[in-house]
Amino acid sequence: MRRLSIVLVIIVGATLFATLGVGQDQSSAPVEVFADLEGTWSGTFIGYDETGNELYRIAVTQRYQTLNDTMQKVIIYDTMADGRVISGSGINTARRREDGSLDLRCSIDKSNGQRVVHQGRVVIGPDGDRQIVWYSSGPDRVETFREVVRREGDQLVYEINGMGRYGKTMILMHGRYIKQRGEDPASEKEPLSNGNKDETS
Predict the structure, then answer these.
(1) 26: which residues sit within 8 A by CB, 6+ positions away?
(2) Which domains are present in the chain?
(3) Model-level pTM?
(4) What is the three-state SS of 22-35?
(5) Sign of torsion, CA 89 121 179 93?
(6) How far apart are CA 156 and CA 159, in angstroms?
(7) DSSP alpha helix (H) spans, the chain
(8) What is the pLDDT along the chain (201 residues), one digit of tens a residue?
């Protein structure tokens, strides 16, 4: 479970540094690069081994709130298969360099005592949409994953795809989260309930 809790930090979806700033108006506030994440999301995060066998399935709730022109707050609740909830909180920061590119970074502190920082960059996806590739590297952990927010019918979907190496173990990761409808300006339907209500240590 210790290895799995390390994997969970990638659900944050908000840990970037040295971003290219692709597709962003340089006159806008740097924090706008995180604008698509604003609000509350709920869904599932799954890990598979190198042969496709499912290793874990986690119920996730994430909340993002812009604080100012350079900072966005992040709150995470990950509910494990045994019912334990690992929470996390952190700050996404975005600052513009002199050359116009973005310096983005996020630090996350987990309720299990872990602190993680990811780096990344903005890229243009196959359909011309803006996406974010995240990465981190350490002695026992290397992670690379891509995230994108898009509309599917009347829902906003936040999706993560990536892979990681934890010691000698390779894990393929897929997360899919739906924005709570009460926070979607394009939706007039009743808000969905938030699946993970209680935070535990």
Answers:
(1) 96, 100
(2) 2-183 (2.40.128.20)
(3) 0.76
(4) CCCCCCCCHHHHHH
(5) positive
(6) 10
(7) 2-8
(8) 444 444 444 444 444 333 334 445 566 899 898 899 999 999 999 999 999 999 999 999 999 999 999 999 999 999 999 999 999 999 888 888 898 888 878 788 999 998 888 887 888 888 888 888 888 888 888 999 898 999 999 999 999 999 999 999 999 999 999 999 775 444 433 333 333 333 333
